[in-house]
Amino acid sequence: MGNNIVIAIDGYSSCGKSTLAKALAKNLHFIYIDSGAMYRAVTLYFLRNDIDLKDHEQIIAALHNIHLNFHSRDYQTHISLNDEEVSDEIRQMPVSENVSTVAALHDVRIEMVKQQQRMGRSKNIVMDGRDIGTIVFPHAQVKLFMTADPLVRAKRRFMELSPKNPDITLEQVFDNLAHRDYQDTTREESPLIRAHDAIILDNTNLTPAEQLAFAIGKVKPFLK
Ligand code: CDP
Which of 4, 143, 174, 183 is most deeply buried (CB count within 10 A of its CB)? Predict the structure, then answer.
């Protein structure tokens, strides 16, 4: 790693990683990279093209045909899949219900991690995900491991999704988060686990401003 600073944020589904990551990026003028959006976009492509998840050749061919790009506007995640903006579609339930299965595939992880490492090679970045502090950037200067009460997490995600999805229920969202956490923590390849040197941040009772202040306190020593 060069002189650039990497902040790695890992944790369970919907526990505020991206809210914190965006706020940090904005405050510190770092680049924000949402690694989950990459796995979600790959999942969308696999669903649309009916990729057989047991067929290694098909997966490799599909990965060759997938071109992902981030456009930073207002520190929000704008991701395109082969030049089509898919930022909204990747948050919908069909993708949420399949993403942890796709993200467990070896071929998919190898390709995504390669792209993520390239993005963090020379720039100051904040990246959030599941394996950022363990696999993608094991030498990140600051590692945070976020957690929060499962019901609080489900309520937050439900509030985010329900305006555009009037039929969605809190139970559906709760079950999806629980199921993804189970898949993410028990998979063989790069499971979600706290890096030994990651700082735990439980934000069940913290406001966004409070969690930002906590995180900035951890990054400060590395800023020149
Ligand atoms: O925003 P939310 O917490 O719901 O999830 P996300 O960050 O968008 O990630 C979606 C899914 O992608 C996760 O449940 C993981 O299965 C997978 N993922 C991963 O395996 N590794 C990462 N670095 C990021 C996400």
Answer: 143
Instruction: Compute how many other C-beta atoms are within 10 angstroms of the C-beta atom of residue 131.
Output: 24
Q: How far apart are CA 152 and CA 158, in angstroms?
A: 10
| pLDDT computed for residue 72 by the predictor | 72
Mean pLDDT of 187-211: 96
Q: Measure Cα distances from 76 to 16, 20, 26, 84 in Å.
A: 14, 12, 10, 16
For residue 66, which amino acid is it? I
Domain locations along the chain: 6-219
Three-class SS state of 126: strand
Name the residue with the closest Cα to ligand 1, atom 6: 36
Architecture, CATH, for domain 6-219: 3-Layer(aba) Sandwich (3.40)
Q: Report the residue count for the chain.
A: 224
Task: Determine the residue of 19, 100, 106 to mutate for testing ligand 1's pocket, defined as the one with the most ligand atoms within 8 A of the Cβ atom.
Answer: 100
Confirm whether pTM is higher than 0.85.
yes
Number of C-alpha atoms within 13 angstroms, CB side, residue 176? 23
3-state secondary structure at position 51: coil
- Residue ranges around ligand 1 (CB below 6 Å): 13-14, 18, 35-36, 39-40, 99-100, 103, 129-132, 180, 184
Ligand 1 centroid to residue 55 C-alpha, Å: 22
